[in-house]
Structures are given as C-alpha cells and as structure tokens.
Amino acid sequence: MTFNLISPATFIYCREQRLSGGKMRSALRKLCQHGIEALRPQRVNDRWRKPMVSRRVAADLRKAAIRSGTYGTFDAETGIGWDPIWDSPQRRRGVDEILGSNQSKIHSIRPPKEHKHDRTREARAQQIEALLAQADDKIEEFRLEIEAKKPKPGIEEVFKKMSRGTRN
C-alpha cells in the first residue's frame, strides 16, 4: 500500500477548494488571468470600474496564503499563494509617510495641533509668575489707598458729620 504525501499548503488549498464546492474561487481565477490588474480599479471610457477582486476578498486570500505558508509565491495554474507585490500600498508605507501631515513627496514632520489650552499652557504659566511677582506691591498700594480714603480720627470729623445733618 502506498501513501501519497502532500504538502500542508496543498492540503489547506484542497480543503478550501472542497469548502467552496471544489472549484476555484472567482477571485482566484481573476488573479490568475489578470494578476495585479485584478486588484486595481480601471478607467474605461472616462468612467471608473471597480476592481475585479475587492479588498475584502483579496485580504481573505492573502490571509489564507499566510496560513498555508505559500505567501511570497504564486502559481497561476493552481491559484495557490500570494504575490507580495499585490499588497496594498498602505501596507508598505513607511513611518515617515505616516508621520507627515503633508502628503507630497517632501514630508514635513509637524507636531499634532492639540487643544489650545495645552498649546498655551507655558505662556499662561509665565504670565501668572510675572503677575505673582508684582502682587505684593499691588496689594500694598491698594491698602495704602484704602487707608488714605478713610477719614482721620479727631474732633474735626465729628463736626463735619454733625453739620451735614441727617438725611431723611
């Protein structure tokens, strides 16, 4: 008795084929025929057509290839594997492109705007410290002004009050 040993990738592929009814998925067929063009939208007669393989289905096929260990190679006859060139450009973007707020070729590294009270916190702290340094002098001036407004104690003030009389 002889046993036919198959690779795990082929086993997973066969299992997925059996679950899908034994025939190749439509997305796999389109990837075999058209390659990367099946994943891109196309402009035909000044109108855009959707990609032949949606991003959701492409992600599903990619994950299946990773699980089966065939990521990095693609066999167009059997539809097994995934070509890394097909990965979406967002996956391959570097940190420099993500950090920059300017999406041109020259990326500026600009800090996030944050809330205004966070941005102006240091200026407010310096202003408060400057006002606190002047606070003792201002308090002393205020007390002297209040003291100057008060009438001086003595007989003259008593006569002034009596001469004014009572107001009814």
Task: Give a verbal description of the structure.
The protein has 168 residues and is mainly alpha-helical. The chain folds into 2 domains: 8-99, no CATH class; 116-164, no CATH class. Helix content is 49%, strand content 6%. The chain contains 7 helices and 4 strands; from the N terminus they run H-H-E-E-H-E-E-H-H-H-H. It has helices at residues 8-19, 26-34, 55-68, 95-99, 116-119, 121-149, 155-164, and strands spanning 42-44, 47-49, 74-75, 80-81. The chain has a two-stranded antiparallel sheet. A two-stranded antiparallel sheet has the order 3-4. Strand 1 and strand 2 form a beta hairpin. Helix 1 packs antiparallel against helix 3. The protein is rod-shaped and about 120 Å long. Residues 1-7 have low confidence and may be disordered.
What's the overall geometry?
Answer: rod-shaped
The counted number of beta strands is 4
Query: Overall mean pLDDT score?
Result: 79
Q: What is the number of helical segments per DSSP (H or I, 4+ residues)?
A: 7
Radius of gyration: 41 Å
Strand content: 5-15%
The N- to C-terminal Cα distance equals 130 Å
Strand order of the largest sheet: 1-2
**Domain module count:** 2
- Give the biggest beta sheet: 2 strands, antiparallel
Order of helices and strands: HHEEHEEHHHH
